Amino acid sequence: MINFQYAKANDVGEAVRLIAADRGAKFIAGGTNLVDLMKDEVERPTRLIDISRLPLKRVEETAAGGLRIGALVPNSDLAWHPLVERRYPLLASAILSGASAQLRNMASTGGNLLQRTRCHYFYDTATPCNKRAPGSGCAAIGGLNRMHAILGASEACIATHPSDMCVALAALAASVHVTGPAGERTIAFADFHRLPGDSPERDTNLDLTEIVTAIELPAEGFASHYSYLKIRDRLSYAFALVSVAAALALDGETIQDARLALGGVAHKPWRDADAEAALRGARATTETFTQAAELILRGARGHGHNDFKIDLARRAIVRALTQAARGTPQSQSDKRIQ
Ligand SMILES: Cc1cc2nc3c(=O)[nH]c(=O)nc-3n(C[C@H](O)[C@H](O)[C@H](O)COP(=O)(O)OP(=O)(O)OC[C@H]3O[C@@H](n4cnc5c(N)ncnc54)[C@H](O)[C@@H]3O)c2cc1C
Ligand code: SF4
Fold first, then answer.
1. Among 8, 196, 311, 325, whose CB has the most other CB atoms within 10 angstroms?
2. Domain housing 299
3. Is 199 buried (19+), middle (13-18) or exposed (0-12) by CB count in 10 A?
4. Is the pTM of this model over 0.85?
């Protein structure tokens, strides 16, 4: 049993004051990831700051025509929110492909962004892991790495970010609103999560003293032509081997705008400007989609057990873009059964 203190924050200002006063403290929202990590003694916070009662549970339209999602909106409420279903079905599909109904009821929007890798060595305190214990080494390199990264990895860490929701948020070019002791700031989603480099212990660019208050979506939701395709070992309750968020704006057969983001392949949701540029202005054909797949995967490298992911990703990208172009997202039928 780890000893820790417990404090309840009543407003965002108090939450920031409490966390800034104790470098060993951690926020707790739904607790679906943090409590597991504490039980395994991977996380040993001196104090839990309960933010679950903060007034951050609203989904509101913005003046710019987008959506502002409070950090404490439960994943289930977000996926089934009428505005999200109608205008951002890519996001709804991605959320519903994750975890289980019970977990989605507890899990918060902010917590989903901050959830930690599912690398099994990270959870096993008997093994070296640079993310858990900086400088100790990486047991996954040369170990069992079937679930691990093929893009953006480093010599220090080859872990992946496990979120589905974040892959859709990356494709939709969301932004993250945060508050800290110095006030509020907004972080572009592409800059929120980090690549491991030589400091894999840091998953994000959020300061330890900052709290996520909201996610903002721009007006364009690609509601007509989208697909979230998640390839995993079983149909539900499993993390992605590879996932693809594909979103297109079409004029006839010509692609006016395109977004492509991958999950399960890197330390952060993976986008590539060249791959998206190759889609824009081109015809929506298998050849175009294959070229985009080649571009986004051009730096891909396997580590032995996960070599298969490169070809799996290539085929998943072409399939997801094809489904998006046809307006027949496989994810819609998934949604009815989850
Ligand atoms: C068995 C299982 C299967 C799962 N499968 C999937 C899956 O397939 N796909 C998927 O995407 N996810 C999956 N998840 C992960 C789940 O979605 C996350 O655990 C959940 O989203 C975390 O939200 P939470 O509110 O419970 O976070 P918590 O556990 O409360 O917190 C997680 C982290 O975020 C920090 N935090 C929380 N809120 C804030 C905030 N507002 N500001 C700053 N820091 C904050 C906490 O300090 C902590 O470090 C699964 C989880 C489990 C247990
Ligand atoms: S891949 Fe990263 S999280 Fe996994 S053992 Fe290596 S350093 Fe740790």
1. 196
2. 226-326
3. middle
4. yes
The residue contributing the CA closest to ligand 2 atom 2 is: 157
> What's the CA-to-centroid distance between 306 and ligand 2, angstroms?
14
Whether residue 118 lies inside any domain: the answer is no
Pocket test for ligand 2, best of 131, 161, 194 (most atoms within 8 A of CB): 131
Give the pairing type, strands 183-188 and 175-180.
Answer: antiparallel
Residue 95 placed within a domain: no
For residues 115 and 135, give the distance between their C-alpha atoms in angstroms, rounded to a whole number. 22
What pairing do the DSSP bridges indicate for beta strands 5-8 and 47-50? parallel
Ligand nearest to the CA of 15: 1
Q: Does residue 319 belong to any structural domain of this protein?
A: yes
Which ligand 2 atom sits nearest the alpha carbon of residue 127?
A: 5
> What CATH number does the domain containing 309 carry?
3.30.390.50
User: For the segment 85-142, what is each residue's pLDDT rounded down to a tens digit?
Assistant: 999 999 999 999 999 999 999 999 999 999 999 999 999 999 999 999 999 999 999 9
Determine whether the shortest distance from the Cβ of 98 to ligand 1 is under 6 A.
yes
88 belongs to a structural domain: no
The residue type at 136: S
- Does 33 sit in the ligand 1 pocket, CB within 6 Å? yes
